[in-house]
Amino acid sequence: MKLIIINGPNLNLLGKREPEVYGNTTFEAYFSELQFRFNDVQLEYFQSNIEGEIIGKIQETGFDYDGIILNAAAYTHTSVGIGDAVRAVETPVVEVHISNVAERESFRHASYVSPGAKGVIFGFGLKGYDLAIRSFLPD
Ligand code: DQA
């Protein structure tokens, strides 16, 4: 089982960025925990603040990985290109948001990713990534 977590803009600042919304843990620390917890899953992590790099990574992994876990962050609400990339690839994409986007500003309620995603997980903090990994494992 080969999965990749792709995080979008400003998620490199997790741990420092608005901790009341996103928590105090860095993604690197959480990712190490995930690797330990799911040690029989080949788990990769990619983060970029650049829309085209995120599209490139979806294309690169989207035909031979078993799953993509995508938190496109602010691009979720703006990027037709990322939405199209999700639809263009064969690998199923699970959309994750750390915060409960439904209870936040109305511009966060729309997602270009959701229509092409296998499923969406939001509002559970970093645990959403754990749940997304589990969604790819056998029952
Ligand atoms: C986010 C929610 C987005 O609205 C926001 O722009 C982010 C993070 C989340 O994980 O809760 O950067 O995707």
Structural account:
The record marks 17 as: Transition state stabilizer. Catalyzes a trans-dehydration via an enolate intermediate. It is an enzyme of class 4 (lyase). This is 3-dehydroquinate dehydratase. Substrate binds at residues 71, 77, 84, 98-99, 108. Strands 2-1-3-4-5 form a five-stranded parallel β-sheet, with helices on both faces. With 139 residues, the chain is α/β, with parallel strands linked by helices. The model has no long low-confidence stretch (mean pLDDT 97). The two termini are 14 Å apart. It has a single domain (2-136), classed as Rossmann fold. The relative contact order is 0.20. Helix 3 runs parallel beside helix 4 (80-88). It contains five helices and five strands, in the order E-H-H-E-H-E-H-E-E-H. The chain has helices at residues 19-22, 27-37, 51-61, 80-88, 127-136, and strands at 2-7, 42-47, 67-71, 93-97, 119-122. The structure holds 1,3,4-trihydroxy-5-OXO-cyclohexanecarboxylic acid. Residues 10, 71, 73-74, 76, 97-99, 101, 108 line the site of 1,3,4-trihydroxy-5-OXO-cyclohexanecarboxylic acid (DQA).
First-to-last CA distance:
14 Å
Per CATH, the superfamily is Dehydroquinase, class II
Present as ligands are: 1,3,4-trihydroxy-5-OXO-cyclohexanecarboxylic acid
CATH class: Alpha Beta
Number of domains: 1
Number of strands: 5
Helix fraction, binned, reads: 25-40%
Q: Please write the string of helix (H) and strand (E) elements.
A: EHHEHEHEEH
Output the strand order for the largest sheet. 2-1-3-4-5
Oligomer: single chain
Name the shape in a single word: globular
Number of helices: 5
Radius of gyration: 14 Å
The pLDDT mean sits at: 97
Uncertain residue segments: none
**What's the CATH architecture?**
3-Layer(aba) Sandwich
| Structure classification | alpha/beta
CATH topology: Rossmann fold
**Biggest sheet overview:** 5 strands, parallel
* Beta-strand residue fraction: 15-25%
